[in-house]
Design brief:
This protein is an all-alpha fold. It folds into 2 domains: 5-53, no CATH class; 60-157, no CATH class. It is 86% helix and 0% strand. The protein has helices at 5-14, 21-33, 35-53, 60-115, 120-157. The protein is elongated, with a radius of gyration of 33 Å. The chain starts with a helix and ends with a helix.
């Protein structure tokens, strides 16, 4: 069933911040032409003003506990941001070191390959395996750690 225009106007009056500009224009136009909806809107505005004029005081214990929780959360966010910077700088350092050391490592593997008289393909595959091994090892460790945490959290909830 199609929604009545007066019902739509009343629904939109309850959430005016979420309306699109064309919806706001339609609502203003409708309120200008429709006396019952305009009275409803004025009643809602009076009710909101009346509710805002009622003083509200929280108990001191509630205020203190809320302030403590806000401070705790702010401290957690600060520590998280510091850890993020540490991870960022660590990744940057590792990347720069990896780029800088790759040329030396390549030459070392080339020298070792020529010294041991193995084909170029053999020492190049050895270089690639040596170069990528830490990444694979770290991936397995992170995967195992994530699986451990997921299993631990699942068993703690169960």
């Amino acid at each position: 069933m199609k929604q009545d225009i007066h019902e739509r106007a009343r629904n939109w009056l309850s959430d005016q911040q979420g309306l699109q500009p064309n919806e706001q224009a339609w609502l203003r136009h409708h309120l200008r032409d429709c006396a019952p909806c305009r009275e409803y809107s004025e009643g809602v505005e009076q009710l909101i003003r009346a509710l805002r004029s009622v003083p509200f005081a929280a108990r001191p214990a509630l205020v203190r506990s809320t302030q403590a929780r806000v401070r705790t959360r702010a401290e957690e966010l600060r520590r998280q941001r510091e850890r993020l910077w540490l991870v960022l700088f660590s990744c940057l350092f590792v990347s720069l070191f990896g780029v800088g050391s790759t040329a030396f490592l390549w030459r070392g593997f080339a020298w070792l390959g020529h010294w041991s008289q193995v084909p170029d393909v053999v020492w190049q595959v050895g270089f690639a395996a040596f170069w990528i091994a830490p990444t694979i090892a770290a991936s397995f460790l992170f995967l195992a750690r994530g699986t451990h945490f997921a299993d631990h959290n699942r068993s703690a909830r169960g």
